[in-house]
Amino acid sequence: MTADLGSGIPVAAIHVINLLTYILLGTVLAIVATKKLNRAVTWLTIQSLFLAAVGGVTAMTTGVADLYLAALLTAGIKGLAIPAVLFYVIRRIGVQKELELVVSTKTSLVITGALMVLAYSVIPSTLVSAAMGPNVLPVAVALMMSGLLLMVTRKKAITQVVGLMVMENGLYLAAMATTHGMPLIVELGIFLDLLVGALIMGILAFKINQTFDTINTDRLTNLKG
Amino acid sequence: MEILLLLIVPVLTGVLCWSIGPAAWKNRVNVLGSAVVLVIGLTVAGRVFAGGTITGWSEALYLDPLGAYILAVVVLVSFMAALYSVGYMKAELAHGVINEVKLGRYYLFYHLFVFTMLLVVVVNNLGVMWVAIEATTLASALLVGFYNQKTSLEAAWKYIILCTVGITFALFGTVLAYYSAVKSLGEVSNALNWTVLLANAGKLDPGLIKLSFLFILIGYGTKAGLAPMHTWLPDAHSQAPSPVSAVLSGVLLNCALYGIIRFHTITSAGIGPGFSARLLVIFGLISMGIAVPFIMLQRDFKRLLAYSSVEHMGIIAAGIGIGGAGLGAGAKLGIFGALLHLFNHAIAKSMMFFAAGSITQRYKSRNMGRIRGAVKTMPVTGAVFLIGSFAITGAPPFNIFISEFSIVSGSFQQGSFLVAVLFLVFISLIFAGITYHVSKMALGKRPERIVPGEENWLMVAATTLPVVLVLILGMYIPPWLAGIIEQVARVVIIRGGN
Predict the structure, then answer these.
(1) pTM for the structure as a whole
(2) Contacts with B128 from chain A: Cβ below 8 Å
(3) What distance lies between CA A4 and its chain's CA centroid?
(4) Contact B148 A211 (CB under 8 A)
(5) What's the CA gap between A96 and A35, in Å, rounded?
(6) Would you call B135 and A196 a contact, using CB atoms and an 8 Å cutoff?
């Protein structure tokens, strides 16, 4: 019943995509492992560029023209514009490191590893066979879960935005794995939302830093009950 | 192409307010723009109710009775809030809380916010609907953080982060829905269109559709303030400027519920009504239950109203769930009550936030312990506030009583006694809690330090306007309104086989 989806992609391309998705997993681990905000954003940039590469390969093998545009936009917005915003905020605020961690980087790495194993084991095989190789959907789900982990365990506003973008990257990959991406108009809208979202989160991080003298979100505890 | 005009006018209004001269002109443009949007919106909605669904731009724009109903609520409440904003911000300017530059920014984001909400209801593609719902968060986040205080920035940050994460789940749900559609229809670009999905609901993969609805419910449920994903809501709704609080509580929550309703209908049409309806009832009751202790022990005036919104979203969700659980008279009562409640709550809650805004501005405090004798201090606003609190808690003879009664009797007719009893217990407790707080605030003697009198006539007018609707709809539902809700209900309950 899913013949029209999976069959379009030749074996060689699946190997390339497999390799790229392993690199994506590596970038997630790198983001989780670092305490330095700059480095986290750098790894996010690399992740987004490799995500664009997955899109590019899929575009080549399927010949769907929309996918080229989506891949270009991924590189341009997720790999260029959003990191630029984040780097700018980091430089202006002058905060370099996650200092007090809720969960140490070592423990987070172990949890991330466990999440990856979980992702590989929970994805039903019926979904996997429809994808572009067996690897893509589990990696996508692993990305989403690791992004969520980053958001709940890190305190700096910037790292939370990075976690959010990792989640979005996972989601984008999931959409590509299942349906070769969402319809173009939807993709365009999502990119716009992401860009504006990053800008507004940057503005708020500025203001929080001005008012609280910190971007540690665990200081945000005035509102209760 | 009135729909297109409807989308352009708010953007133009916002940009104009932001760019032109002194505050007086900003205010005028704001009111004029909102009035134009109101007229166009109600005209378009009226055309849908009279002549059926409108489509445009090769079906990219799509307005059926459900969309038109929410559209009417959006334009009505956002017009009243724009009117109220003028008076409210005039007072803030006079007190030196804001300056003219900030006023311009306020109107810019306010009207962009209205634009995004209108976009939610007029698009056919459920992916684009997601984009619009996320855009509502982005447009309103800076409004929540408008006062740049510690508390408001905290609220804005939690709001944008939690809602964006939540809604990411909804996007995953949308991807799954698209996947299930593509599996049966092939990779056609309109496979995410509501019309296409609904027409082919029977062919969708049942497992995927269930999974999709789960993610949608968690995702849009976060945005709609359904418990236990509601934690951002009391912060954001209490920290925003009061006219924005009114729009957030009154209509933005409904826009998120609208997303859930669309998917609920598709899920019901695909795999039968039991699955999604039951989930809606459960989440609805949890939301009502969680609101109880927070309302009873509340100290902050606006947080009280915010938790009441959590309760009311729960009521609507439960009502839609009850309405989805069969084809009998009970289901009809449930869905009728839920849809009527959506309107009633929007009107009553925005009225309450207007009154709360005027009262907190006068008393310079949101602490309910410091507010006494509101009726004596501000005769009109205080009276409206007292009426509003009875209306919002569902006391007769006000409009919310009718819709709550309808949902409860629907539940009894279906024999779901547990649901009905829990429902009644929760609304009774909340009635007691709110009445206790309000009676202490509204009645009694005015403190010496407070100067009596209303702030300005604009705020009074905007606050009094909804009272008329609340009173009329409490005693009498005009046949045309009943007819409209009947039409909307037919969109929501389309049944498929099991």
Answers:
(1) 0.92
(2) 185-186, 189
(3) 28
(4) yes
(5) 9
(6) yes
